[in-house]
Amino acid sequence: MDVAVILAFVSGILAATWRMATPLIYASVGEVFAERSGVINLGLEGIMLVGAFNAYTAAFYSGSLWLGLLAALFTGVLLGLLFAFFTVTIKANQIVVGTAFNLAGSGISGFLFESIFLKSNYSSLGIPTFNDLSFPFLTKIPYLGDILFHYNILVYITVLLVPLASFVLYKTAFGLAVRSVGAHPKAADTMGISVSRMRYICVVIGSVLTALGGATLTLAFANQFVEDMTSGRGFIALAAVVFGGWTPWGATAASLLFGVFYALQLRVQAMNSVLLPYQFLQVLPYVATVLALISVRHRAGSPKALGVPYRS
């Protein structure tokens, strides 16, 4: 095979990797905060779906992508507070609550989409999406230009999000408090740190970033909402947190790894390959997720109080 063809193929995959990984980066980095505080939010899939739907609905009726983004952030705050109320205040089982969020998110977003849009006589359900930012000259660099300089603002925000999240978690008093309530909540409580308040804050942070990841699907990638369009990304984000060792940088690296498989299956499908059925290609990201979890099944480093309600 010609070297230029190989380089173009690899460049195309790498160019799509960051884009495909962006929703995962938002959700996984947010979930790092939640799990570091001791709360596992299994409901990422449902929160992403509702965030995607509300962002789409707000942008559709207002004509403003920024209002759609604001609607997603507001959705994340509300769902985060609701999840924290059940898991932190009521101390319900976190796995059960997360499962309920996923079922409710799928059912409610699908029902509202069908009721509001599919039963209405709209000529088009498409909305504009965020345009790629312009970088004169840089975009013309062979191969590298496509890989680094052809994205919209929601993709580039992750460049700031990840180091900022890492700095907050490891270099600030707030981050120390977060890690303490996730590792030794009784000791943190004794030192005057409110375990409930810290967990509420971290769950809301995680939910907001997850909803933003959902909004990315409708406002930056697709131009409309589709039922269950997250396609398991919430669960893959959970796997990225574990595979990344409960750190923002690790979760991001894992998200990019899973993004490679998303990009690969799309690229191969676009080539109309007859050697492999498209169903096999579509399952690649999920197979990668399972293999990643198997590879870290004995890894230490999870917060010691993860999933355990705190009772003072």
Can you walk through the features of this model?
The chain has helices at 3-36, 44-62, 65-89, 94-118, 144-148, 153-171, 173-183, 185-190, 195-221, 233-243, 248-270, 278-282, 284-295. By secondary structure, it is mainly alpha-helical. It has a single domain (3-119, 129-295), classed as ABC transporter involved in vitamin B12 uptake, BtuC. Helix 1 runs antiparallel to helix 9 (195-221), helix 2 (44-62) crosses helix 9 and helix 3 packs antiparallel against helix 9. The termini are far apart.
* Percent of sequence in beta strands: under 5%
Number of domains: 1
Element-level helix/strand string:
HHHHHHHHHHHHH
Would you report the number of β strands? Answer: 0
Unreliable spans are none
How large is the radius of gyration?
20 Å
In a nutshell, what does this entry contain?
With 312 residues, the chain is an all-alpha fold.
Question: Which helices and strands appear, and what pairs or packs with what?
Answer:
Blueprint: H1 3-36, H2 44-62, H3 65-89, H4 94-118, H5 144-148, H6 153-171, H7 173-183, H8 185-190, H9 195-221, H10 233-243, H11 248-270, H12 278-282, H13 284-295
Helix pairs in contact: 1-6, 1-9, 1-10, 1-11, 2-3, 2-4, 2-9, 2-10, 3-9, 6-7, 10-11, 10-13, 11-13
